[in-house]
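Memo to structure team: turn this sequence into structure tokens by end of day. - J.P.
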Amino acid sequence: MLKSLLIKNYAIIDSIEVEFESGLNILTGETGAGKSIIVDALGLLLGERASTDVVRKEAEKAVVEGILRVAGNRNARAVLEAHDIEWLDDLIIRREISAKGQNRCFLNDTPVTLSVLKTVGDFLVDLHGQHEHQSLLRTEIHLDLLDDFGGLAGLRSEYQGTFRRLSDLCAQLEELEERGEQLKEKKELFEFQLREINAMDPQPGEEESLQTEFTILENSEKLFEATSRLHEMLYDGEQAIHGQLVLARNQLEDLARIDKTFDDVMKECASAAAIVSEMTKFIQSYNSKIEFNPERLEQIRDRMGGLSMLKKKYGGSVDRILEHRDRISKEVALAENFDEEISRLKEAIDAARKVCSHAAQRLSSKRRELVSGLSASVEGELRKLGIANAKFDVSILNQSIERRDGNAGTSSAYVKLGKEQIAATARGIDIVEFLISTNLGEDPKPLAKIASGGEISRIMLALKTILAKSERLPLLIFDEIDVGVSGRIAQAVGKSLKNLSKFHQVISITHLPQIAGLADAHYVVEKRERKGRTAATLSKLSVDERVTEVAKLMSGAEVTDAGVKGAKELMGL
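Reply from structure team:
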């Protein structure tokens, strides 16, 4: 839902800021007042390309900013999260066009490319205007809309699970087949490397322990001499610290018998003597275990040299050596069992393909069952909208894969229908396109080739009415959907828009009172002169102002009592 729109320095717009309502929002105004300019500005928010010509004279840049309520829109959220853009329930889209040619796009104040903006826009707004942003004209979404119409989400999800399994196995086989020759070529090298590494048999954390032991052995004489001197200083010497502390403690005990204030000092001295005693025991024990072992020192030196050589060859650390050994061990094992692994994968693919083929056929059959119902519904809706001879059809085709030497390629992503091999994607095996004929006697043609803008808008309206609950169509904008219609048909178009607005926010530009009278919110676009320049304005109308505006649409600039009465009847007042 579009909550608010800000347009500054765009074409003849100086500054417009407006809040939209849920339901049916109607824009009216005289021809040339700037209604389509507002729709064009909305197109900028959806990723349409822009020229510096749109920047208002004497302005540095044009700015268009919209705040859209996007809570629950999973597709838009996925795009934002994929580009590390903060997700909030309200999405702020801003577009800036500089008079110097700079073009900047922002999503929640994060700069993005025009392509990212367009991708997000496709999930938020469906705009039918002079610059078409029409999702229903893109054949790639027809299949999705058909599935939405038939409620096939569960069946499609089931198929997708089987297709992912098949695709993963095919990818594994393809990768393995590509690696086959490489494995054979490198098998001898890997076996040599394994022998070299296994001969050393490096262990995790070994270097650190070897280095510690080497340092101790290399400094054994220094350690022995230093610990011997310490033992003498602390315990064995004539003026040893331990003996002096014992004497001091005894003296303090004598003083404490006379004056209790010496108790604490005496206890601290006794504690110090005990600490020195413990230190002495540790030093004496350490000294007795010092080893003078030149042979072990040389063994460690050789071992560290061997590890250093392996590190230079296989990654710079023992951990990297072990990782390399694990990897090439698997490669050697794979090379030795290559044919068996290929056979295992092919058997798994055959089994997965049977499951996927069954799911694909069920999904395709259900889609074909939907065609007559969808066609009848759309044709009925189009008759209400004044296209009496419309014929709507849905083309569903499959693409066969030619066999090569009796096989289409084991790792190809295809399914089997009987003896035929059919190309498959994550969406199934069907290529779906909507076809339509609006004139009696003509064969239906692709929807994208319809020439009449008025017919396109009404066809879109019919389709959207049928598919109204599809979350793929969150906000619908129609620019002059009423082209070429009047009277009863105009009333039908208005009712269709009103019904559609129960499910989605609708913004529509119209010249017809039958449509304007059904608005939940009504806005008028006007041209005004300000400081010698023309500027377009957009104002939201009160109920009384709406009555007057609808009356103008009915009877012209001069509002009559009859016009007011008719307007109120149209508005249900």
